[in-house]
Write a structure and sequence with these properties.
Elements: E1 14-15, E2 23-24, H1 26-32, H2 39-50, H3 63-82
Antiparallel strand pairs: 1-2
Helix pairs in contact: 1-2, 2-3
Length: 88
Amino acid sequence: MLEGDGTCADARIVLGAVASRPVVVNEAAKMLVGNKITRELIEAVAEVASKPAKPLDNTDMALGYRKKLARVYVARALAEVAGLPTVS
């Protein structure tokens, strides 16, 4: 949730499809609270959020690629919430 000035008032980051159950990433969410969402903050939060991602070996895609996508999707979601152009 963003305040009128773009400062994050509350955040939750939950990863799906990277483990046998959804993974709540509190450490990454805490990085957002009280801060204005910037491109640099997005990249830092996305990196921290992707650390616990442990994709299961049950699809055709490589595990490393799927783990990298966790960072990409977190960054894209945060950019969208902040009204910034999508990052890759």
